[in-house]
Amino acid sequence: MKDSENIPSLMDDIGARAKSASAQLGFATAERKHAALISAAEHVWRDRETILEANRKDLEYGREKGLSDAMMDRLALDEDRLRGVVDGLRAVAEQADPVGAVMAEWTQPTGLHIQRVRTPLGVVGVIYESRPNVTADAGALCLKAGNAVILRGGSESFHSSSALHACLVRGLRDAKLPEDAIQLVPTRDRAAVSEMLKMTDTIDVIVPRGGKGLVGLVQREARVPVFAHLEGIVHIYIDAEADPEKVLKVVMNAKTRRTGICGSAECLLIHKDIAQTIGRDIVTALIAAGVEVRGDDTLSAFDGVLPATEEDWGCEYLDMIIAARVVPDLDAAMDHIRGYGSNHTDCILTENAATARRFMTELDSAILMHNASTQFADGSEFGMGAEIGIATGKMHARGPVGATQLTSFKYLVTGNGTVRS
Q1: pLDDT score of 5
Q2: Through-space distance between the first and last CA atoms of the chain, rounded to whole angstroms
Q3: Entry pTM
């Protein structure tokens, strides 16, 4: 679709159909939703060649746009990644259905029996960039939570997302659930995003998943409530009592496994007492692996380290680049994280349990880790099967947003002719 003048009516229609579908999904049985997700998984695997061919078109489009290597990695699919999509759909299918779960119940002295139960949010709008697997993850999680979803993928992943979306729709059809429960905006035109942000009559919450530019745009312009998923400015603090072997394993994995994901480490903070020993060793190893290290005055004296600028502190590179600085103690490390972090994921490497406890108690990031790679900042690694993103705000959902986090609640109050005196 190319005619921008038709986009408001297009989005109005999509919203109305999503709202209608959400009314039916709100009381759909767990068995129907399970069947839809299992069927969708089977369709993804059966149609993997079609999906990979669509992905090749997107990769060519990405190359023409001059996407970075990290963004191209986010965009790329292969059989292993499609197997991950299939496994994610199956994992979400097998989770307990959150809808209708009793969160708490009690009886008042008046005789009223009160239950607080989980209920769907309604219609979720998801706006995301590049990664086509988000199509499957977001569709599956919203369905599991009884929500209809409107997906607006990035222009780069248009063909891949469309192919994956078709599999989700076939799953809905096979399970006799409304096909409008999972809709993909059928245009690359950015005007569709602007329309979604003001669809207060039909969309209950917007989830942006992408870079700082996208999330900032959504937060500035949205009239619909937003789950904030900000950039991942991920820090690792290497304490004076860190184990050298763990430092090498964790830091190398956290930076180099996949640089284009939000859990990739972007800044090292090294205690001054180990700067010339463990610090030098890990910086040398990073450079040998092809990582560009941008260091403070102390570290830039090491061979191969480039001088850092103020802009390097608080930068999400999503690339083979990392900032590094020496700090005098834990308090200085935490001050740096508070000043430059994004409240996404931060890690401490230490064998001192008390130091680790202070780090994890006094910092307020959505995810805090001790002696573990920040690449684990992922809903599937938290046992959620998949996630719709990492929420860094403090309202409603925080950290990996899975199916349970995509529900609200209501109160069910039962009496027996009970009246208030």
Answers
A1: 57
A2: 62
A3: 0.81
The candidate with the shortest Cα–Cα distance to 362, out of 262, 268, 260, 237, is 237
Question: Quick one: 100 exposed, middle or buried, by C-beta within 10 A (0-12, 13-18, 19+)?
Answer: middle
Strand ranges, E, within 158-272: 182-184, 205-209, 234-238, 265-271
Q: Measuring CA to CA, which residue among 382, 377, 330 is closest to residue 358?
A: 330
Supply φ then ψ for residue 227, to 5 degrees.
Answer: -90, 115
**Cα(327)–Cα(269) distance, integer angstroms:** 6
Quick one: tokens of 232? 């991942």
pLDDT level of residue 3 (50, 70, 90 thresholds): very low
Q: Name the DSSP class of 303.
A: T
| Amino acid 217: pLDDT | 86
Task: Give the chain's domains with CATH numbers.
Answer: 4-227+401-414 (3.40.605.10), 234-381 (3.40.309.10)
Rounded distance between C-alpha atoms, residue 42 and residue 54, angstroms: 18
| C-beta of residue 365 within 8 angstroms of C-beta of residue 394 | no
Q: Longest C-alpha distance within the chain, in Å?
A: 81
Phi–psi pair at 420, nearest 5 degrees: -95, 130
Looking at per-residue pLDDT, the higher value among 22 and 402 belongs to 22
Beginning with the edge strand found earlier in the chain, give each strand of the sheet holding 182-184 in spatial order. 182-184, 148-152, 123-128, 205-209
**What residues have CB less than 8 Å from 195, skipping those under 6 apart?**
7, 8, 11
- 3 and 188 in contact (C-beta within 8 Å)? no
Nearest CA among 315, 311, 189, 328 for reference residue 271: 328
For 303, counting Cβ atoms within 10 Å of its Cβ (0-12 exposed, 13-18 middle, 19+ buried), the class is exposed
CA torsion 136→137→143→146, rounded to 10°?
-160
CA 135 to mean position of chain CA atoms: 12
Task: Tell me, rounded to whole angstroms, the distance of Cα 315 from its chain centroid.
Answer: 18
